[in-house]
Amino acid sequence: WSLPNAERYALQYADGRQTYITESNRGEIKNGSILRLTTSPDQEAERLYSGIQSNNSDVKTDSLKKLASLSQDVTFAQEFINRNGLKQIFYIVEEGNDTGEMLAHTLKAFMELMEHDFVSWETLSAAFIKKIVSYVNMNVVDASVQQLSLSILENMVPTSRLLFELVRKEVTLDRLLTHLQVTNAQLQLKAMALLIALLLAATDAERRDMMDYLREKNIRQFIHKNIIHSSEPLGDEMAHYLYVLQSVSLNLCERRMRTSMDPYSQEQRELLQSLRQTAFESESEASASNFSTERRRSLCAKEFRKLGFVNNSNPAEDLRRAPPGLLALDNMVYFSRHTPNAYSRFVLENSSREDKHECPFARSSIQLTLILCEILHVGEPCSETAQAFYPMFFGQDHFFEELFCICIQLVNKTWKEMRATQEDFDKVLQVVREQITRTLSLKPTSLELFKTRVNALNYSEILKLRQTERLHQEETLAVPVLELRERLKPELLELIRQQRLLHLCEGTLFRKISSRRRQDKLWYCRLSPNHKVLHYGDVEEGVHSPPIESLPEKIPVADMKMLLVGKECPHTKEKSSGKQNKDVLELAFSIVYDVEEYCLNFIAPTRYEFCLWTDGLNVLLGKEMTSERTQTDLDVLLSMELKLRLLDLENISIPDTPPPIPKPPSNLNFCYDFRHAEQ
């Protein structure tokens, strides 16, 4: 347009994020995008740099507000940081006494500028950090300032050991617990985020101390009552933090689980002896005093055999296997001390049974502890995106031990129901594992409810469930049924395709995950009703299904080239940091589009969404649906359709081969002759 001083101007998107157009991103402009002419990023950075130094508080506040929104743009952020703008922000925070709107804009701008990773968090001054900490520790301060301060500290903690120690020292756990107890859900969430960041950055010993302190302060009861059972529904992010807290708590058992028993440890030997004494104390102590050492030893061996140890002369040998190691011993001792009646009943009942039919307490306990560790993922690293926590975990102190107490009694009950002998040991434990996993999948809200349900799911119920599943399998394997399945498949696959496309039309909320942390930035993507265009754009927290018009970015389906998943995606190649990103790899997919081969990168919120989206995009690209969900959906639909078609054949066995077609008759005189009728 032949503007004088053209370098002072720039083009900027009019909608959405309002990003500046630069040489590097100009190729991404879509047809139909609305652009506006505005001052260039360097001019704007210069103007705001002066504005935030103004003595007029209105000008200063407006400049900071504009800075907070423009700092999301990488080009502007670089210009502002190059002018030493961060130093000015530090000055406003360190020297200012304001705790209202102006400070909130300053901290928001700081967060956005740091998001681009131009500057390391380790370069922050001690004075600045102290000031941020003071906002968290002050009582009379704007809630938005406290939220931003907690977010800043949460970002600092994982970056270096020094910053972790500083934050841990300055922000006490008591203070964080105070923030958790507020009614403001966002403040509660940010406090939980900082608490989780501190726990994850701590060493094992520090984590243990922190968890002990939190237990003293009854954090579990508080979470159970005020967060899980609050009137507000639980958000995805809070669900993730509760999952991490559960995972960290359960992983405290890992050390004992991986430690074998030391037969020379006095403390461990005493624990082992206490099991024997609690069970047989009255009968053995009275008579043992008169016995010789040899006789006493053989009596002990006999009692350890009654307790169910395989190696009764040296029971410590049974606990040498790790996992479950000493954790199994801890569980047995907890059971004997906290429910002595149930413990004595278990041991005495089995010691009076015939040799073959006794249920070995110690051997069962060791195997059950191992099963519980596997089911509850003890010793496994936390997933970055998982949200699956057990509500009953937060309703109970000593959750693992209490769960063991319920399940070991379940072992005895199932053993009796199965009329098992020693040879059936593995079968019984297999049934018990199934009883526990099936009950846990119902997400009981308390251990009492878990106990009721797991006991109701007795051996005969498990047999019925297994038989139903087996019959269903056998029924669907007959040759004519398999032929019918093949005939029905195309029609049902078309139904699944339609469902996938409908799901894409409804759209999904995706999270942006940066290399540093699990971010709370959201964006939405949905397919147009005519299946021609994908619309997407950033949205605010709390927006569930924004209208298509509010999503500024678009990709025509005709421009889509291919779909990438897992390791092939560009955004997973950038940050492959081993085991922690394994779960992100399972949820990542990208669309390659346009001649230039740009990528739109996704990280699905759940595996279910991942399957639906990858299937839907494959349908749009004219390819086969490849997800595991397609197979399960197809199986469900086929089994329902087959059941309906085979209803009339109830209790009739279907032959493998069709019955033979009879030969034609020797004469066809039975045919009706119309000619005679006409005469």
Automatic annotation (TrEMBL):
Pfam annotation, one family: ELMO_CED12
Record flagged with keyword NAD: no
Domain of life: Eukaryota
Keywords for this protein: Apoptosis, Phagocytosis, SH3-binding
InterPro entries linked to this entry: ARM-like, ARM-type_fold, ELMO_ARM, ELMO_dom, ELMO_domain-containing, PH-like_dom_sf, PH_domain
Any Gene Ontology biological process: phagocytosis
ELMO domain boundaries: 267-440
MF GO annotations: SH3 domain binding
Function: Involved in cytoskeletal rearrangements required for phagocytosis of apoptotic cells and cell motility. Acts in association with DOCK1 and CRK. Was initially proposed to be required in complex with DOCK1 to activate Rac Rho small GTPases. May enhance the guanine nucleotide exchange factor (GEF) activity of DOCK1.
Protein name as annotated: Engulfment and cell motility protein 3
